[in-house]
Design goal:
Number of domains: 1
Radius of gyration: 19 Å
Number of helices: 10
Distance between the termini: 37 Å
CATH class: Alpha Beta
Number of strands: 14
Strand order of the largest sheet: 2-3-5-8-10-11-12-13
CATH architecture: Alpha-Beta Barrel
Largest sheet: 8 strands, parallel, barrel
Shape: globular
Structural class: alpha/beta
Order of helices and strands: HHEEHEEHEHEEEHEEEHEHEHEH
């Protein structure tokens, strides 16, 4: 209760400064769960009714946001596809960075959740890679200046490796990634999302901590499976082998474009040790994993009406606008 009250207090000034205060008073926003649920990744998180907060309410440890850099206002805007008038889109700061900053401050335990669990913010760059990343780096740097422990940081050392300082949020760059530029940086606030071709190449996990790739890039031919019924033994063994390879490099694994977003696929992935399971069904995956664990995670607390939930004005502004009726693969 103390943490919740602190979060409300910290949010009051942000909400009060918005023209959407009236809407914020009249709507309910999901409250983050007290405990995180492992292996959970919110695919295209911004398309849910309450971006970030729906995922946190269900205990998710990873959320995904697509971004575009628009030249005329130099803002990082959140959307899957480009639009004619970018001012209709929320910024990454509004939807994710400021709420996460204040949630970390409220938790005051090194994480985002009450139990201290940190989260991943997977940022998928949709516009030109280098310029968008440079703008993102500058934005993250501004936040880090006031909150040094907010983001995981990677600093090159004398041995050409990286000294890592863990933050409450680990940002990982996907999509159009300027690999060479990121490798040259002496200080990063984000890591690089690897692909299947990066497995077994001896790349430091401090640069590539995550391997993400299209399911169909792994499971074709005799290994192909439509996600219905019981997973074939050969496909199951292949998943376990990939997990073992990735884990041997101290990295984590995610598949996207799963054949089904359903328990028939979640189960084999969870049992094989896949670290992040892609889903659009936040409640379904969270409840499935909780029921699969030996020690179940407590259910998320009910939603409450909040005047001061961080980022609520932006969430209400974007309700419905970013929602999609179809499952997108990346």
């Amino acid at each position: 209760m103390v943490i919740k009250n602190l979060i409300r207090t910290l949010a009051v000034s942000a909400v009060a400064a918005s023209c959407w205060v009236g809407q914020a008073d009249a709507n309910t926003v999901p409250v983050p769960s007290n405990f995180a649920v492992p292996s959970t990744h919110a695919h295209n998180d911004y398309e849910h009714e309450y971006p970030l907060f729906d995922a946190l309410h269900n205990g998710f440890i990873s959320v995904e946001s697509d971004i575009w850099l628009y030249d005329y206002d130099n803002q990082l805007r959140v959307a899957h596809d480009p639009v004619a008038d970018a001012t209709t889109l929320p910024t990454l700061s509004e939807l994710y960075l400021t709420p996460l900053q204040n949630l970390a401050t409220g938790a005051n335990n090194g994480g985002i959740y009450k139990d201290g669990t940190k989260i991943i913010l997977l940022v998928d760059i949709k516009s030109e890679g280098l310029s968008t990343y440079q703008r993102l780096h500058d934005t993250l740097s501004d936040y880090a200046a006031n909150n040094p422990r907010l983001f995981t940081t990677y600093t090159k050392n004398a041995s050409s490796g990286y000294d890592v300082q863990e933050g409450a949020v680990s940002v990982i760059i996907s999509g159009n990634r300027p690999r060479d530029y990121m490798l040259e940086q002496n200080l990063r606030y984000a890591a690089y999302d690897g692909r299947r071709s990066d497995i077994g190449r001896g790349i430091a996990p401090e640069f590539i901590p995550l391997i993400s790739d299209n399911w169909n890039n792994f499971f074709t031919g005799d290994l192909a499976w439509d996600g219905r019924g019981i997973i074939p033994d050969d496909t199951k063994a292949a998943i376990e082998n990939i997990v073992a390879q990735v884990h041997s490099e101290n990295k984590i694994l995610r598949f996207w474009n799963l054949p089904q977003d359903a328990p028939s696929v979640w189960g084999p992935l969870y049992n094989a040790g896949v670290d992040l399971i892609n889903t659009d069904n936040l409640t379904g995956l969270s409840q499935y994993i909780q029921s699969s664990r030996t020690t179940k995670v407590p259910e998320p607390e009910p939603t409450v009406t909040l005047v001061g939930v961080l980022g609520v004005s932006v969430l209400l502004l974007t309700r419905g606008r970013l929602k999609s009726s179809s499952y997108r693969s990346s």
